Amino acid sequence: xxxxxxxxxxxxxxxxxxxxxxMGKTVTHVGDxxxxxxxxxxxxxxxxxxxxxxxxxxxxxxAVHGYSATTIGTILSAWPAGIALGALVSARLxxxxxxxxxxxxxxxxxxxxxxxxxxxLGGVALLAAGAFVSGAGFGLFQTPNSxxxxxxxxx
Length: 155
What we know:
Blueprint lengths: L2 E5 L2 H14 L2 E6 L3 H29 L5 H8 L1 H15 L4 H23 L4 H27 L5
Parallel strand pairs: 1-2
Helix pairs in contact: 2-3, 2-5, 2-6, 3-6, 4-6, 5-6
């Protein structure tokens, strides 16, 4: 179902909560006016960035750098390992969810920068390290969103 992230006055949210609950089961107050749009946009951008990376990266590594499908699979297998580690770490942090999410976005971006920098240098280990860092960042970013989903009624 739809996850709704709302910014604005808490008392105003209470008044319109029945409307939101008719559209989705998870309604989360994320701060002042505009904060809901920022939170939802950040989530969508992060998910889209990972999807684009996972689709485009194999083609890039093969076409530009000549890596075989087996080598590309080895490189990309580090990504889900990073996600798992990032998720484990994120689930145990006591910082506000927005801080964890921002940290995850930063780590993900750093991993993507490493992948871009290492692609021209060659070396499976360096590329796998970049993939691992990107995955860890995604795990850090996505876990707070998953925690919000798990808090909805019926779970």
